[in-house]
């Protein structure tokens, strides 16, 4: 007897089946050949899709359809685990599962009351925060339970970032779990010009739980581990050592710590209390189904972020809520194995990607061959300087140093994606552009020529000739006004040379020597200011 698939599942599977079948056709195309645009699906494909979509009458699933259904409903974040949206366990409220996993000892003090009062007075904020968190909560609870940790830890992003995946603190802590740059690197969270894994939902959750597990092993107490997560393990260790020397208790409530850390665990306790009994605080929690809110979809080619969002049927903001780690408007396949998409949009993405016939990425990475100005780099790639500066975040009056990586338009003839090495190591190094030149008015000496003035002020003879409307081989008349544009450092050097020349001439003759003299914009005290600055540093 044939096994039947529930009709609710069939209706959900229709677009998924089409995507999978199209994908299967694409993968069987001979190497180097592209499927012809507009080619209708094979009869067996059309028949399978029609059978899967026919919800008007009972359908008996064939063996191939059952196999496809099993593959499509596998949770690719948990290999081997199948998703059945119709089973009772998938329909229960996830908050109940969270409550059952609470393990930490409760706090009950004025700090907890203060936090409870703060949340109770802001029901709209709590609703937004919990609704936003419901997107990620199932995955976090799964990861917490795998490690045998208390499920209170799944609530930690509520007080770290309110589940805002792109949150940045005043101290530059970033992401849902608020990692500082150095700590993020310690836990293998990549941070370069293309991506910041501190904002990556999966990577940051893995790193945060690794870090909390290490801290718990170090201190043997979850409250102290949480304090160290907020304040730093070194500070908590010092506070424990101080109390030990004084013969005082070393639990969380007994340590001397900043108010921010003192308030940290009580805030988590307040959120825990709200989850346990929201009615007690006149608050409500959105229902959260006990199955994945998102699936991961493999990325095999570089693709623009905007196009990926479009193919998934999402606006750009929603797409970035699930994939906030990208720093640029392109997803590099070599660095981003997968994107996360809401369950219902994953199939749309796969289907539309299979149908898409145009280029996927309009941007690529370019390694700067020599130190150059942004204007020169922009000209090489046929784009406006302002656009190149904006997309690569280059501030004014800066040069791009050799070996830096810039994001530039991808030329039509470029077919190769960005390499894994470049995607992982790309960096941008800048140096100050040459300072603005100062206009100097000089009086020529007897022997001054265009060439001698150019050499003295370290500019080209062509520039001196242009500034003074003379030829490159011209000689200046004694006392003639000369215009020179040069940097302050060169001005000071030239002035010293002029002074030295005067001294030598005065030593040789009793007659005053005629030499180039600076009569305007005299440089004063540069060395003295530098010395003071050096002493201050």
What would your notes on this structure say?
It comes from Pelomonas dachongensis. Residues 440-484 form the LysM domain. Residues 1-26 form the signal peptide. Pfam families: LysM, SLT. Keywords: Signal. The protein has 537 residues and is mainly α. It folds into four domains: 1-73, no CATH class; 91-281, Lysozyme (Orthogonal Bundle), CATH 1.10.530; 363-432, no CATH class; 438-536, LysM domain (Membrane-bound Lytic Murein Transglycosylase D, Chain A, Roll), CATH 3.10.350.10. Helix content is 47%, strand content 8%. It has helices at 7-27, 43-53, 63-72, 88-91, 94-100, 110-120, 123-133, 137-146, 156-160, 181-186, 201-219, 222-231, 233-246, 259-262, 264-276, 305-312, 316-322, 343-355, 374-380, 385-392, 420-425, 450-456, 461-468, 488-508, 526-536, and strands at 294-298, 303-304, 330-331, 338-342, 363-367, 398-400, 405-409, 430-432, 438-443, 481-486, 517-518. Strands 10-9-11 form a three-stranded antiparallel sheet. Strands 1-4 form a two-stranded antiparallel sheet. It is extended, with a radius of gyration of 34 Å.
Tally of contiguous helical segments? 25
Strand order of the largest sheet: 10-9-11
Our Rg estimate from Cα atoms comes to: 34 Å
Poorly predicted ranges? 1-73, 505-537
Helix content: 40-55%
Number of strands: 11
Sum up the overall morphology in one term: extended
What portion of the residues fall into strands of 2 or more residues?
5-15%
Number of structural domains:
4
What structural class do helix, strand and pairing data support? mainly alpha
CATH third-level topology of the largest domain: Lysozyme
Biggest beta sheet summary: 3 strands, antiparallel
Signal peptide: 1-26
Domain LysM: 440-484
Protein name: Transglycosylase SLT domain-containing protein
InterPro entries: LysM, LysM_dom_sf, Lysozyme-like_dom_sf, Transglycosylase_SLT_dom_1
């Amino acid at each position: 007897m044939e096994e039947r698939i529930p009709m609710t599942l069939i209706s959900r599977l229709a677009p998924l089946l089409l995507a999978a079948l199209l994908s299967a056709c694409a993968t069987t195309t001979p190497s180097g050949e592209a499927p012809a645009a507009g080619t209708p699906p094979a009869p067996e494909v059309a028949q399978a899709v029609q059978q899967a979509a026919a919800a008007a009458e009972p359908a008996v699933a064939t063996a191939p359809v059952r196999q496809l259904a099993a593959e499509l409903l596998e949770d690719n974040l948990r290999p081997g685990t199948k998703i059945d949206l119709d089973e009772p366990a998938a329909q229960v409220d996830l908050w109940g599962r969270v409550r059952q996993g609470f393990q930490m000892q409760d706090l009950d003090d004025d700090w907890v009351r203060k936090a409870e009062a703060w949340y109770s007075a802001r029901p709209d904020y709590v609703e937004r925060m919990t609704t936003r968190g419901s997107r990620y909560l199932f995955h976090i609870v799964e990861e917490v339970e795998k490690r045998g940790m208390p499920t209170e830890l799944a609530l930690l992003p509520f007080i770290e970032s309110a589940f805002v995946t792109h949150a940045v603190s005043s101290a530059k802590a970033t992401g849902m779990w608020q990692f500082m740059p150095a700590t993020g690197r310690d836990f293998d969270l990549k941070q370069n010009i293309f991506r910041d894994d501190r904002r990556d939902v999966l990577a940051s959750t893995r790193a945060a739980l690794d870090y909390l597990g290490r801290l718990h092993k170090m201190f043997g107490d979850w409250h102290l581990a949480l304090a160290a997560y907020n304040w730093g393990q070194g500070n908590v260790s010092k506070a424990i050592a101080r109390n030990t020397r004084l013969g005082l208790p070393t639990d969380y409530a007994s340590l001397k710590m900043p108010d921010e850390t003192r308030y940290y665990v009580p805030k988590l306790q307040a959120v825990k209390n709200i989850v346990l009994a929201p009615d007690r605080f006149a608050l409500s929690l959105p229902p959260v189904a006990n199955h994945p809110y998102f699936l991961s979809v493999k990325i095999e080619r570089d693709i623009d972020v905007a196009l990926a969002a479009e193919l998934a049927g999402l606006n750009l903001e929603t797409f970035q809520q699930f994939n906030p780690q990208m720093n640029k408007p392109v997803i590099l396949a070599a660095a981003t194995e997968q994107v996360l998409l809401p369950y219902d949009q994953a199939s749309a993405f796969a289907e539309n990607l299979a149908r898409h016939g145009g280029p996927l990425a309009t941007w690529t990475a370019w390694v700067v061959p020599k130190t150059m100005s942004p204007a020169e780099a922009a000209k090489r790639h046929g784009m406006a300087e302002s656009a190149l500066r904006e997309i690569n975040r280059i501030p004014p009056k800066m040069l791009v140093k050799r070996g830096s990586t810039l994001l530039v338009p991808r030329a039509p003839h470029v077919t190769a994606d960005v390499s894994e090495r470049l995607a992982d190591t790309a960096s941008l190094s800048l140096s100050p552009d040459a300072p603005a030149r100062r206009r100097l008015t000089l009086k020529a000496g007897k022997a001054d020529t265009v060439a001698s003035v150019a050499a003295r002020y370290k500019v080209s003879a062509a520039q001196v000739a242009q500034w003074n409307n003379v030829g490159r081989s011209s000689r200046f008349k004694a006392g003639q006004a000369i215009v020179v544009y040069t940097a302050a450092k060169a001005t000071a050097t030239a002035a010293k040379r002029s002074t030295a020349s005067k001294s030598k001439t005065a030593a040789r003759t009793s007659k005053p020597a005629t030499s180039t003299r600076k009569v305007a914009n005299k440089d004063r005290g540069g060395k003295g200011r530098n010395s003071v600055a050096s002493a201050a540093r």
